[in-house]
Design goal:
By secondary structure, the chain is α+β, with helices and mostly antiparallel strands. The chain folds into two domains: about 90 residues, 2-Layer Sandwich (Gyrase A, domain 2); about 110 residues, 2,3-Dihydroxybiphenyl 1,2-Dioxygenase, domain 1. The chain is built from six helices and ten strands. Strands 6-5-7-10-9-8 form a six-stranded mixed sheet. Helix 2 packs across helix 4. This is 4a-hydroxytetrahydrobiopterin dehydratase. InterPro entries: Glyas_Bleomycin-R_OHBP_Dase, Glyoxalase_6.
Length: about 230
């Protein structure tokens, strides 16, 4: 029976196989040397996932790497089946002489990650329909309430979520980026952002998220799955 896993359970179940739990999904990357190799690995992954591929697996195949993402479409979460599929994919990649990895500290351009856009609003219900229409987005499975996040139905663009404000803030930006990274990548990303001239606005909710700002006060958050339970 397919069961939804907690953040901790999902993370621990696949970390040893080179996957990371990031924002409700399992992600891994396989560095390759050609698009043909990437497409071949994608085909292998689909084959080992069988009939479950369409409901769980997303693949981004590029000449440099192929990125696999696993999440139950039905539950919009990681399940026991996603873990099983991740291990199958890792085994198939291993047979090809390559390995699944989150590309942390390997010299890769960056680790696996997920990008969200956060919009601060006084009346979330009043603006959500606009953003849904202008982006061509929709709600996640089972989440079409007036204040729920929006997602790209074809899985190419970043998700959009809405943060409740208690008063107007015309003096600062009201749209910021959330960069969700593996929990063991966050310290490296935070250090790099600060070294690049950023400043730490708040760490009161770390390790769930650190609020950073550039030299002109534009904000971004580095986020992880940790610190969100309890």
């Amino acid at each position: 029976m397919e069961q939804v896993l907690s953040r901790q359970e999902a993370s621990e179940a696949v970390e040893g196989a080179g996957w990371r739990f990031v924002l409700g999904a399992l992600l891994t990357s396989v560095p390759v040397g050609s698009l043909a190799r990437a497409v071949g690995l994608a085909a292998d992954a689909v084959a080992v996932c069988g009939g479950d591929a369409d409901r769980h697996l997303r693949v981004d195949a590029r000449p440099e790497r192929v990125v696999f993402t696993l999440q139950s479409v039905e539950h919009a979460a990681v399940t026991t089946l996603d873990v099983e599929l991740a291990l199958r994919i890792s085994a198939a990649v291993d047979k090809s002489g390559l390995s699944t990895e989150p590309e942390i500290g390997t010299g890769a351009p960056r680790s696996v990650q997920t990008l969200e856009i956060a919009i601060d609003a006084l009346d979330i219900g009043g603006i959500r329909a606009f953003w849904r229409a202008v982006l061509g987005y929709t709600g996640e499975a089972g989440a079409e309430g007036p204040e729920d996040p929006l997602i790209d139905p074809v899985g190419q663009g970043p998700a959009v979520w809405f943060q409740q404000m208690d008063q107007a803030r015309p003096q600062r930006n009201r749209i910021h980026f959330d960069i969700s990274v593996p929990h063991d990548e966050a310290p490296r990303r935070l250090e790099a952002a600060l070294a690049a001239g950023g400043r730490l606005v708040s760490a009161t909710r770390a390790p769930a998220f650190w609020v950073l700002a550039d030299q002109e006060g534009n904000e971004a958050c580095i986020t992880t799955w940790q610190g969100r339970d309890g």
